[in-house]
Amino acid sequence: TKAKELLYTGDFIDAQEAYRIGLLNRIAPQASLLEEARKMALKIARQPGEAIKATKLSVNGGLNMDIKSAIAYEARCFEILFSTEDQKEGMNAFIEKRKPVFKHR
Fold first, then answer.
1. Over its length of 105 residues, how does the chain's per-residue pLDDT go in tens digits?
2. Which of 8, 36, 48, 73 is the most buried (most CB within 10 A)?
3. Long-range contacts of 79-84 (CB under 8 A, 24+ apart)
4. Which CATH class is domain 46-105?
């Protein structure tokens, strides 16, 4: 794979190549880099905090689990998240066709 090639050879690639092969999600000019990072951070911060936390734990933790354990862990996270205030707010906002106002609870 390209990842192994880069790891084994120590070759450097520029931002365009990193973007092309999927190592980067976005490229921003130096002058607007901080602003672009802030936009991404705000977009994530507007999401339900518990859902972001559970997603991060599932993705990172799942890498060290067999598939059966990872699926069970993800199901447990979903079960917990489905009982949060933010989940109820998200569902109500969807039904009412409005933007949700999450309280991170």
1. 888 999 899 999 999 999 999 889 999 999 999 999 999 999 999 898 888 988 888 888 878 889 899 889 888 888 888 888 888 989 899 999 999 988 888
2. 48
3. 80/50, 80/54, 81/48, 81/50, 81/51, 81/54, 84/48, 84/50, 84/51
4. mainly alpha
